[in-house]
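G., the chain you wanted modeled:
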Amino acid sequence: MESKFIVNSIGIGGVFFAGLIIFWFIFVYLKKHMAPDQSTPGFSAATKTSWEEKRQHPRVAISWQACLEYSKATQEAVLKDVSLGGAFVICQKPLALKDQFKINLNLPDHGPLQLNAEVVWSNANIPRDKVVNRGMGIKFIKNEEKARQLLQNAITAAFEKSDESFEGK
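Predicted structure as C-alpha cells:
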C-alpha cells in the first residue's frame, strides 16, 4: 500500500512538472509571436524617452543674439535651436528651473521681439569640462499672438535660408 502511494505521488509530480515545462514553452512562444511589432505606426513603446521625440515644433539650427531680463538684472545670451515652442539659451549664468523671464531679440529681417519664457532644464550644475555650451533649455510662455507670429515668420525664413544653402552645396 505504501509503495503504491509513493509510485502515485511520483507519477503525479512528474505529470505536474511536465505540465509546467509545456506551459512555459507555450508562454515563451506566444510572448515572442504575439507581442506588438515596434515598427508598427502608432505603437508607443515605453522606451521612447528621447527629448528629441518629445518636441512639438520643428527646430532650426540658428544663432540669434539675445538679452535676458529677470529680477531687475540683464544678461547677454545667444539663442540656438529655436522653435515656436522654445530654444536653447547659451549664457554664462543659467537661471533656476521654472524661473520666468523676458528675452529681447533683434530678429534678422524681422526687427525687435520680446518674448516671455520659462526655464525647463539647465546644465548649470554640470562640471565645465563636461559642457560644450553653458546654458539652459527654455519654453516660450504667455506670449501674444502677434509675437508668436513674428517668431514663426523668422523661423520660417531661417528654414528657407538653410534649405537654400543646403541646395547650393
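Residues 56-167 form a domain with the Thrombin, subunit H fold (CATH 2.40.10.220).

Shout if anything looks off.
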